[in-house]
User: Fold this.
Amino acid sequence: MELTLITLTFSVLFSFMFFVVGALSVWVLRDYIKKRIDARLSMHPEMYDEEGNLLTEGLIAFNFDGYTEFSDIEPDEL
Assistant:
């Protein structure tokens, strides 16, 4: 009876430990992959140099106040 109790206790502890380690590993890996895919999709071709490296200097960004997308405007409003 004592051996069965010890075996069951260690089985539960190891199962829980592997579940936690696996869940944390998948969570970290998912976050890493999501950031890589989002970064790759959000870059425009003009932001790369001739060798395919991302340009980090000399980039300018413009924001326009009151900008309306043309898809939001009805044809009779043009």
Notes: The CA atoms of residues 47 and 60 lie 11 Å apart.
